[in-house]
Amino acid sequence: MNALARFDTPPPIRRVGSGEPLLLVHGFTMNWQAWGAVIDELATEFDVLAVTLPGHWGGPPVTGSASVAGFADYLEQVMDEAGWATAHFAGNSLGGYLSFELGARGRARSITGIGVPGLWRIGGAVAASVSRKFKLMGYGLPLIPLTRLPIVAQLTRLSVLRMLSYRPTRVPAPLAAIAIESAAHCRCYHEFLAQSATDIGNSADDVGGNILERVTAPTTVVFCEYDRIVPPRPSSARMVTGLPKVRSRTLSGVGHVPMLEAPAQVAAEIRSTIRFAQSGGDASQLG
């Protein structure tokens, strides 16, 4: 195969296992494969459906707009086709925010949101900082095919992976290649980035965790200790405090997409959230 040849396009979903339904939702520019070993680990206990969002590598084309509402509508469609009225949700980054949105729509039994953006004010400094990072990354998308060349692969992959993980050398090589390749095939990058400026976050007159206040399912907000894209901030943690069914955790030693480098840790957090929900989801009884 030519060094610059495209990878095979993955299927739009992977479903495996049996038990209570669990929907896994990836982050912006990724696809369901970003969940890596988490899928098989959780499939021993749950009916796991890992889905790729519209406009992302292997996913369907965008119909309507590449927006939080549009992506959430698609996830509801996937659930309906699977015969699920409700499900446990686990989402990373954008996938976590979409999980909150589905929780606000009453479709969630529990939610594990990992490295989630949006616990900020729309138009504020934090939102602007994250937006700048993605705009800068957008300039590099045309160069991603060069990462397939052996002479530059190791250096460029490590550079990209440092944005996604704390210890890039812990990311299995096939998973690293997929994570980078998926960004090159993200067909809605610029459209969604423009839309997200008003889609994700709290309105200027909102004093608290806007979307979390509308979520009724037991929820864990997971901060990633060395997240270089959405760094943990005291202001974000404050938006979680005091909400009756919402708790927060911090995953130590991981970056923004912890499934890449610490799948067992991520799977354990998802299991913990589901047990939290099954016990009644009282955030005052943290275990």
Low-confidence stretches: 1-5, 203-209
Task: Please write the CATH class name.
Answer: Alpha Beta
- Succession of helices and strands: EEHEHEHEHHHHHEHEH
CATH topology: Rossmann fold
The value of Rg in angstroms is 18 Å
Total strands: the figure is: 7
Strand order of the largest sheet: 1-3-2-4-5-6-7
Average pLDDT number = 86
Largest sheet: 7 strands, mixed
Helix content range = 25-40%
Coarse structural class: alpha/beta
CATH architecture classification? 3-Layer(aba) Sandwich
Structural description of this entry:
The chain has a single domain (13-278), classed as 3-Layer(aba) Sandwich (Rossmann fold). The model is unreliable at 1-5 and 203-209 (pLDDT under 50). The chain has helices at 37-42, 68-82, 94-104, 125-140, 150-164, 173-184, 189-199, 210-213, 234-240, 263-278; strands spanning 13-16, 20-25, 46-51, 87-92, 108-114, 219-224, 246-251. It is built from ten helices and seven strands. It has 287 residues and is α/β, with parallel strands linked by helices. The protein is globular. Helix 1 (37-42) links the parallel strand 2 (20-25) and strand 3 (46-51). A seven-stranded mixed sheet has the order 1-3-2-4-5-6-7, sandwiched between helices.
